[in-house]
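Project outcomes to date are best conveyed with an example. Our students and postdoctoral researchers have been running inverse folding experiments weekly, and each run begins with a structure described purely in tokens. The record below, which covers 340 residues, was selected by the lab manager from last quarter's runs and is presented without edits.
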């Protein structure tokens, strides 16, 4: 079917193309009666605006952008982003907006993508995830004519852009305190990607709370993938002095760690307690079910989208705390065997 143009609408309505343009763009120049007739004809013919024409006119293109700098295959098992994007889509659907999602190999690729989108007017604003220190994306998005943007992360790593964050430090302190209260004296943590802002915040909270509680803290670096999570777990358990509890920076690594514990003959939770971050159906499908730091990731995504619309409307940059993940205790944690 051929695309309906303003010439088609003008012919059907018996007016000039200029009058159609005024009516469709809600500009003065036509009477209310003529505007109503033109809009009625446009609806009857099934007219929709051309994105290219809207870009040239400076109108909104009704699309926001999200770039993920990571290996594409990770999205197949990264439940956080599936839930997060679902929340974004809830808000976009309410406003008849679309989401432009692109996966790139690294942060420089993300900067280049933002530049291309801005030059071509592909999006009205962008969501930035995984902020870090000296982040080149924040520099590029802080200019006078830059795309409106919202950072998903602690304001410490958001520069002068608005941010929406969860209180990861408070959540991790609660978790370490809980495990220490059960009697664990050697607690490990399988971290996410080193350098990410939220990884840094969790590092500081983990070390600080462990020192306060008088327990030994050990960190094994990983990258949120199951393979890295399994290798990190092995380094904490397959040793002469293994930890008796492990906190993971996501659910996928915790699930992989559970498999390593079974493989090594370590009973969960008798020999080692495991705690996941980002509670998901995966945590509840495991055996035993995984204790987790829980927060509503779908709601988090929706909150971020709402703040981006506010920013696109000219709101000042502010930091918004979404929530503090709470500890949901299940069968994967308990006192160490020596305390039973």
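After processing, the design step wrote out the following sequence:
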């Amino acid at each position: 079917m051929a695309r309906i143009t303003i010439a088609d609408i003008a012919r059907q309505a018996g007016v000039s193309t200029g009058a159609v343009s005024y009516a469709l763009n809600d500009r003065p120049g036509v009477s209310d009666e003529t505007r109503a007739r033109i809009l009625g004809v446009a609806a009857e013919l099934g007219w929709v605006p051309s994105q290219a024409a809207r870009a040239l006119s400076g109108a909104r293109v009704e699309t926001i952008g999200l770039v993920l700098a990571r290996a594409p295959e990770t999205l197949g098992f990264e439940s956080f982003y599936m839930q997060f994007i679902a929340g974004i889509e809830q808000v976009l659907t309410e406003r008849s907006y679309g989401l432009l999602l692109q996966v790139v190999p690294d942060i420089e690729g993300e900067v280049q993508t933002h530049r291309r989108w801005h030059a071509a007017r592909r999006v009205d604003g962008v969501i930035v995830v995984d902020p870090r220190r000296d982040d080149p994306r924040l520099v590029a998005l802080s200019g006078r004519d830059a795309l409106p943007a919202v950072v998903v992360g602690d304001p410490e790593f958001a520069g002068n852009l608005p941010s929406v964050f969860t209180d990861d430090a408070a959540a991790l302190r609660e978790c370490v305190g809980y495990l220490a209260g059960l009697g664990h004296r050697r607690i490990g943590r399988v971290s996410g990607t080193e350098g990410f802002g939220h990884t840094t915040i969790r590092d500081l909270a983990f070390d600080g709370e462990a020192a306060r509680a008088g327990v030994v803290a050990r960190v094994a670096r990983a990258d949120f993938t199951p393979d890295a999570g399994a290798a990190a777990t092995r380094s904490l358990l397959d040793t002469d002095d293994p930890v008796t509890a492990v906190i993971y920076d996501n659910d996928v690594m915790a699930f992989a760690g559970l498999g390593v514990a079974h493989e090594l003959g370590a009973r969960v939770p008798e020999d080692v307690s495991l705690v996941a971050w980002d509670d998901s159906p995966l945590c509840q499908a495991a055996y035993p079910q995984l204790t987790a730091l829980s927060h509503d990731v779908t709601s988090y995504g929706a909150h971020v989208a709402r703040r981006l619309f506010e920013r696109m409307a000219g709101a000042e940059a502010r930091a918004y705390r979404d929530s503090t993940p709470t500890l949901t205790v299940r069968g994967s944690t308990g006192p160490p065997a020596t305390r039973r």
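Residues 197-213 form the longest helix (17 residues). The chain has a mean pLDDT of 92. The training component of this project remains on track.
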